[in-house]
Fold this protein.
Amino acid sequence: MEVGLSIPVERTARQPTGRVAGSGVRGGWLAFAHFFRSATAMRTLVFSLLFAASQSCLAATDTNIIAASDWSEPVADNRCFALRGRLVIAYTGHTDFDTGVYVELQDASGHVGGPMAVYFDGEHGHDFRPEYKGGLNCELLDAEGKFVPQSPFAFSGACPNSCWIMMPSDSTVRLRANCFGIGKPKGDGLAISAPGKYWVIPAGDTREYFLSGSFTVIPPKDRVSFPDFTGLDVQVWHGTMTFPKMKISVKKP
C-alpha cells in the first residue's frame, strides 16, 4: 500500500524562512527547543498515520481469511470519540499452521480531531483470572447456542504484548490478539485460540459454529509506557465493544 502525505508548513511574519526568532544564545536555545518539540510531535503524528495505513486491511480480498465478523456498533467515550471493531480469523503464513485471531479497530467518531490512544491488552497481559475482563474475551458456540468444550493444548511460543496504540482520525488497524505458533495445517481441521481459550474443530466436521466476543479497554492508571505527546490533543479511549457472532465452518481441502 502506498501512502502519500501532504503536510502544509505554516510560516508567520515573526518567523520568516531562514531566520530564528529571538537574539543571542538565549534566543537560539529557545528556537531550538521550539523546533525540537514541534518536530517530535510531527514525527509522532506521521508515524501514527503510516502505521495505521500499513495495518489497515480489506478482509474480503484476503484469501487467508477463515472468518470475519460484521462490525460492532460504535462505542463513544465521554468526549464523543468513538471506535467500532470486528473479529478476524486468518492463516498468517508465518508457518503452515499458525492461525491468528485479530481485533480490527476503526475510528467511528462523527468528527475529525486529535488522535485516540487505545490500550491494547494483548493476551490479557497474561492475567487470566475470571474477574479480569480487559482485552479480548471469546466463546465458541454450536448451532444450538451451546458452549463448545475447550481442548487441552500446550505450546512454546511468543504472545502479543500489551501496548498503547495511536489511532489518527479515520484510521483502521488490525491487532493480533492470540499467541503465535498455534493452529492446524490447512485441510487438517481448525484450531482456534483466544486469550485463555482453545478449541479444535476436527477435519470432516461439517457442523456450523459461531464465535462471539467482546473487547474491553481498561487503561492502566499509571499509563504504562505511555509516550510523551506534549502539544498534541490525545484522547485516551476506554469502553467495551461487543462483536456480532461470526459463523465458522471447516473448509473442505
Q: What stands out?
A: The chain is about 15% helix and 30% strand.
